[in-house]
Structures are given as C-alpha cells and as structure tokens.
Write a structure and sequence with these properties.
mainly beta; four-stranded antiparallel β-sheet; four-stranded mixed β-sheet; globular
Length: 172
C-alpha cells in the first residue's frame, strides 16, 4: 500500500485571523529562531481560537493540542517558539507554538516539480525515495507550507483538532 502525504491548509471559514501587535517589527519566521518565547502576544477580537490558528504573519501557529501531536515527530530540523493568544471567549491567555523549519530538507522530485525563477516551488512533486522515512517536512524554501504523513493526519483527525484542511500531495 502506497503511503500518502498531505499538505496542511488553514480552514479560513472556521476562525478569525490572530493579529500581532502593530508595534511588532518581526515579520519573518527566520527572525525568531533565537527566541524560545516570542516577545509579543497574538490577539483575536471575537471568535473562538483554532488548533491551527491563522495569523497575520503567515506563520504556522499551533495550539497545545497540535503541539502535543507534532512534538513526537519533531527533530533537530525544526524549532518550536512559544507564544500565547488572548482568547476573547474564555478571557484567558492560551498557549500556542510557532513551528519553524531550521533548514530545507531535500524532498522534491525536481524533474516533475514546477518552479518560478530558480527556486520558488510553484507545484511540488515529492520524490518517493526522499520522503519514505519522513513523517513531516516543509516545501523547500517555505516556512508555512507543511506536509505531513498520513499517520499524523489521522492523529489530528482523531484528536478533533480545529482549523485544518488537508489535500493530498503528489509523490512520484
């Protein structure tokens, strides 16, 4: 049986965008790699928080529930940076984690993938030999395009995590 991999999408219909403070000067996830805790807190105005929380910085922002799933699969190729979001419904700070790639992992079938310029991946096709032992990876050159093994997808579904959609990726 062929192993399947899935791209994680934020379900925009389920929640509200968490916003960094206006005075925040950090824009790119690469700028937070020296932090263990972010120097600011995200905020939403009126809706419930999601386990895969959309945000105005386009970072992968996971709830504690998602963190607990993914931490078992993390390696030295990834870093977690803690933060919090003020939940307007519960009126309390909730722990969240920014999931950061530390380096690109060679996973693409370069002959079948489509690129813009020299390195931006427009359509990713993954090499079966390169991904066969991986449970998760980012599309090279991206800090927000995360791909997960079907085992992780099933854990996310079984834990009833919110804010997530999946689409199968090509592996050849």
């Amino acid at each position: 049986m062929k192993t399947k991999y899935y791209y994680l999408h934020i379900n925009e219909d389920d929640g509200e965008v968490a916003r960094a403070p206006l005075e925040n000067k950090i824009e790119f996830v690469e700028e937070i790699l020296d932090y263990s805790v972010l120097p600011f807190q995200f905020k939403v105005e009126k809706k419930c928080l999601q386990d895969y929380q959309s945000n105005d910085l386009s970072w992968i922002l996971f709830s504690k529930k998602m963190y607990d799933i993914f931490i078992d699969y993390s390696s030295n190729k990834f870093k977690w940076v803690s933060t919090s979001i003020l939940d307007p419904i519960l009126n309390k700070n909730c722990s969240y984690y920014v999931f950061c790639p530390l380096k690109d992992i060679d996973v693409l079938n370069v002959n079948k993938s489509i690129f813009a310029g020299n390195d931006f991946v427009v359509k990713a096709v993954f090499d079966v030999a390169k991904v066969k032992n991986l449970k998760m990876f980012f599309i090279p050159g991206s800090s927000f395009r995360l791909v997960v093994h079907e085992e992780i997808k099933e854990k996310i579904i079984n834990c009833k995590c919110t804010g997530i959609e999946f689409s199968e990726v090509l592996v050849k």
